[in-house]
Amino acid sequence: MRIPLRSAVWALGGGAVVLVAATAWGVARWAAVEAMYEQGERRLEAATALGAEQLRASRGQPLDSVAGALALATGYRVSVFDSEMALLADSDLGPATLDTLADRTRRSEVEGALLRVSGSSRRKSLPDGQSYLFSATRLYRGESVVIRFGDPVEPMQDAAARVARQVGAGILAGGLIVLILIHRAAGVVTGSLGEVRRLLIRLAAGQSPGPRIKLSGVTELARLASSANRVRAELEEQVARVSRERDELAQLLDEVVEGLMALTSDARILLINPAARELLGLGKVPAFAPVGSIVRDPVLRDLLEASVVRPEGRLEVRIGGRELEVRTKMGTGGGSVVLLVDVTEMRRLEAVRSDFVANASHELKTPLTVIRAAAETVMDEGLPQGLRRKFLNSIEGNTVRLQRLVDDLLDLSRYESGEWRPARERVEIDRVAWAAWQEQETTAARRGVAFDVAGAGEAVGDEAAVYQIFRNLFENSLRYVPEDGGRIGVEIGARGGLAVVAVKDNGAGIPAASLPRIFERFYRVDAARSRKEGGTGLGLAIVRHLVSSMGGEVSAESVWGSGTTITFSVPLHRDAVAGVAAT
Q: CATH top-level class for 256-342?
């Protein structure tokens, strides 16, 4: 039987149209279903994460009411399981149904959440037999629980089927020309769905989302592309905000000079800034390391471990030669925050101040006691005139000593507080040395002490300060050089842009054990002799501050029984005499 060409063409064309339409319908349905699944899973994961936060914040509320409220707000089915995968609450099931489902049926998404914090699956639900997209995540709400959101896939499949039917009907109704147009349209549909799919895959992999998806002329596809673009924009905004906040917090913590630590509820290190690592002498700290394995000091370790259960704590501990003040405060959501402050310098200054007050009080008490005793004796009318004069001389001498002590204390206080600033003027060192010696000439002549100045030089500094340095050093030397044979000399030289001055004597010298401490306040090698000679114990401390303020250094060399050399330096004037000998 022969078939007319037109009929054969029609039959072949119709068959081709039907075949193409059927093929296009199947492809369109598959692509739409896949895209909607992936989009639904992304939305479901986001809703699950938000639901977990709301469930964590709703402690004390019944699980049924919380699950129902979340289901009403999101449109998803909401379920809650315990750590044994027993169903505790379900927004679609009543309490009676829950009792019949109290078994611990294996659920892949719940198992995944218990093992890896979050899990998902596509499967049928046992109670109603419907297929769902499930997304679950684990949280701590007094105990470990899993919240699961479910989205039925039937609406997605229906939507995909509608798209496929539209494509197939258009091909069947349009004939060969329409078939070509539908084929092209199918290509556009597949391309649009592929773009959506690729976008979702890139977002899921944490890659750059790329350009926005162009909206298709098909309503459903346009809505799908619009939803994908909206998810893309929201995710980019959230990632950018989280990254910005993370970077700002990291920069702030790095810049803080105090040590900061954040501990989790089980005393693991959630965060530690560089200052805290430096104060505790730590290198790189692994994330979530137990604080007990990082901190070695037992007292500090006990405080930090207890900080997650104790509202507040405070402690001073010595670690690596530093005094640390440690304060802890328990967080409202669990864990704790730890602050570490280095108070080493503060404690040192407190000790120095305490010693200074004690020494100053002792030094002031001695002359005052002598003055009081002598004054009470002088008031006796029967006291012989010669003895009266002796006590009056004692009162005068101790008054002078007291005045000198007060003057030195005021000078030292002024220098140490920074209230005094040295002048920068041209100073002829040899001339100032001779001028300072003139004050001591009467005492030196009476004791037969010789004096000379070797060399000359000009410095940049405060002439009054240099004068006081020489006067204090000369007074010190005169107390310890022998009578009839004592010698005090000044040698002036230059070294590396500094005028170097050495004051030498042939006195009793300084023991090696005392040499490092002679520039301390109130320190005396021979306390009894120094007080007898009228010394305050502050002369060399003043010398050290004056020299340091002018940019120089001071040091001492001595051999017990063979004299002492005090050497100090001040900046050399640029027009200093060329004949100054280098030292």
A: alpha beta
